[in-house]
């Protein structure tokens, strides 16, 4: 049996960055990076944006040049799925039956797209959009189709809708909730994106879950409210099933994901978990599915393995590009009790600030990078700032973070230059 | 001879890097095997982890856009010649440019 000092499972952003960070923090032992895909680690978020649109070739998505892995003595073991882990014996088993030993394990396996469960879920027109193979299969099917139905009005679905409208496909988005982005954003953001997509010809059907898919060639979609539509191709973007099963069977504690401590260590000694499938034990209690989180947690796990002090979890950030709209999110809006609209959605540049007990905890910024950048300080400062001031676009968020008291005076006296 | 630019890494050493027409400096630096730029967001103007300083004598390089300005503004190591390297596509006009990787924040 081949053994490595550290094995990383998952070659996405988290896994690739963990390998890099281990070397950066002085880890001299052997490292293996096991990935289920055949490719070198690549930038996954681009799949539903630039890659799908044909604006970036795959070689430009590679996170590191091909020679990097050899130079850093990182053994790539692509095309392998890990099917079992023994924490006691410190070894894992792959789908091909091979076993590998480890001293430390970083589980960065992410997850798989949540599958449809309705009748006809396995219709040949059904596609998912998680990895390169998904995207290539979709790209191969697209030239022959006119009407694309997208199940799920989340980020993946809306990003795909934007790209497909650019290809002049007829696009219908089917969202079971009463608004798009319902799981992640406030109402104003949802309504704005619905209007933008509709203005560009996307049909958005809200409040209608998918009942079944029928038909032989084209897919006939029957919605739960009785509506029926036909599509040449169906793209499903209804969330992620985290890759928790293998570690759960190995005895790791899970709650929506694999529970980890501040050092990204699971409940199993020597086994760390990062990225999309991890849940911070003393954190917000949700998985944070973002490049930033994968990247930061990779650094934390690497430092912990190298015996170094780990930094506190950073303020999460996220982005989504659709058409000429750049949505950038700072913080987590979980548990907010109020929102403040800053700027005018009609001008296609605004922010929605999320508050909890008077403090800003998150911001969705649309074509408003300055607010996005500056909201970090505001969120981290945790100051109580009157809503009227937060909404005042003549006062930069940075200034609010620095001098809340003075601004109240300035605002009340008609300060600012509006 | 391939036209390129000069790259000063954080240890102070200077390297010649071959340019690739139309490709952002961030990607060229990464693909040339220099790993000091984290470039977390992959070049979509949502972080500032590909921060570089460019030499002041270069005229072909343009000015930072408004979003880039906003991101640079929040950097503690901002200088007047700061740029995000993902926002500078290499062109022959930039041959001979000197680029310094900004300190890690």
Can you describe what's shown?
- The complex is a heterodimer of chains A (418) and B (105).
- Chain A has 11 helices and 24 strands.
- By secondary structure, chain A is an alpha/beta fold.
- Chain A folds into 3 domains: 2-112 and 241-305, FAD/NAD(P)-binding domain; 115-236, 3-Layer(bba) Sandwich (FAD/NAD(P)-binding domain), CATH 3.50.50; 324-412, Enolase-like, domain 1 (2-Layer Sandwich), CATH 3.30.390.30.
- In chain A, the strands form 6 sheets. In chain A, strands 1, 2, 3, 4, 5, 6 and 18 form a 7-stranded mixed β-sheet that branches. Chain A has a 5-stranded parallel β-sheet with strand order 8-15-9-10-11, covered by helices on one side.
- In chain A, strand 10, helix 5 (187-199) and strand 11 (203-206) form a beta-alpha-beta unit.
- In chain A, helix 1 (13-24) runs parallel beside helix 7 (291-305).
- The model of chain A is unreliable at 414-418 (pLDDT under 50).
- By secondary structure, chain B is an alpha+beta fold.
- Chain B has one domain: Roll (Ubiquitin-like (UB roll)), CATH 3.10.20.30.
- Helices cover 14% and strands 20% of the residues of chain B.
- In chain B, strands 2-1-5-3-4 form a 5-stranded mixed β-sheet.
- The mean pLDDT of chain B is 92.
- Chain A binds chain B through residues 20, 43, 45-46, 60-62, 64-65, 67-68, 71, 291-292, 295, 317-319, 321, 326, 328, 369-370, 372-374, 376-377, 398, and chain B through 23, 27, 30-33, 35, 38, 40-42, 44-47, 66-67, 70-71, 73-74.
């Amino acid at each position: 049996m081949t053994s490595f000092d550290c094995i990383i499972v998952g070659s996405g952003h988290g896994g690739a960055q963990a390998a890099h960070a281990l070397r950066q923090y002085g880890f001299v032992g052997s490292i293996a990076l096991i990935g289920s895909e055949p490719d070198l680690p690549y930038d996954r978020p681009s799949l539903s944006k630039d890659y799908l649109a044909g604006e970036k070739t795959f070689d430009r998505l590679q996170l590191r040049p091909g020679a990097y892995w050899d130079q850093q003595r990182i053994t790539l073991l692509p095309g392998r799925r890990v099917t079992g882990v023994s924490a006691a014996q410190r070894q894992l088993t792959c789908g091909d039956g091979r076993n590998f030993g480890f001293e430390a394990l970083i589980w960065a396996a992410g997850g798989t797209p949540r599958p449809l469960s309705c009748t006809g879920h396995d219709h040949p027109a059904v596609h998912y959009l998680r990895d390169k193979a998904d995207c290539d299969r979709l790209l191969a099917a697209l030239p022959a189709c006119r009407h694309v139905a997208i199940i799920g009005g989340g980020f993946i679905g809306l990003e795909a809708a934007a790209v497909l409208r650019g290809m002049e496909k007829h696009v219908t988005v089917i969202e079971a909730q009463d608004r798009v982005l319902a799981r992640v954003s406030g109402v104003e953001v949802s309504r704005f994106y619905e209007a933008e997509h509709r203005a560009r010809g996307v049909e958005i059907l809200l409040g209608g879950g998918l009942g079944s898919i029928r038909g032989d060639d084209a897919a006939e979609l029957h919605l739960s409210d009785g509506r029926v539509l036909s599509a040449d191709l169906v793209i499903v973007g209804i969330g992620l099933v985290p890759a928790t099963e293998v570690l759960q069977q190995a005895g790791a504690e899970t709650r929506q994901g694999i529970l980890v401590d501040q050092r990204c260590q699971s409940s199993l000694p020597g086994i760390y978990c990062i990225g999309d499938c991890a849940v911070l034990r003393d954190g917000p209690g949700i998985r944070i599915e973002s490049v930033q989180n994968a990247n930061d947690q990779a650094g934390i796990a690497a430092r912990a393995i190298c015996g170094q002090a780990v930094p506190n979890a950073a303020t999460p950030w996220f982005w989504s590009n659709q058409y000429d709209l750049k949505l950038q999110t700072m913080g987590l809006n979980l548990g907010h009790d109020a929102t403040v609209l800053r700027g005018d959605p009609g001008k296609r540049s605004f922010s929605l600030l999320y508050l909890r007990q008077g403090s800003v905890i998150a911001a969705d910024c649309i074509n408003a990078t300055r607010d996005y950048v500056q909201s970090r300080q505001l969120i981290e400062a945790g100051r109580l700032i009157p809503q009227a001031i937060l909404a005042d676009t003549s006062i930069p968020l940075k200034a609010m973070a620095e001098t809340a008291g003075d601004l109240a005076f300035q605002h009340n006296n008609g300060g600012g230059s509006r | 001879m391939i036209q390129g630019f000069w790259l000063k890494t954080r240890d102070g050493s200077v390297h010649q890097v071959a340019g690739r027409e139309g490709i952002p400096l961030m990607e060229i630096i990464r693909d040339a095997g220099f790993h000091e730029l984290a470039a977390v967001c992959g070049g979509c103007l949502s972080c500032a982890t590909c921060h570089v300083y460019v030499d002041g004598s270069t005229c072909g390089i343009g000015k930072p856009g408004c979003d880039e300005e906003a991101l640079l503004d929040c950097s503690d190591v901002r200088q007047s010649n700061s740029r995000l390297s993902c926002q500078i596509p290499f062109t022959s006009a930039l041959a001979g440019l000197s680029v310094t990787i900004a300190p890690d924040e």
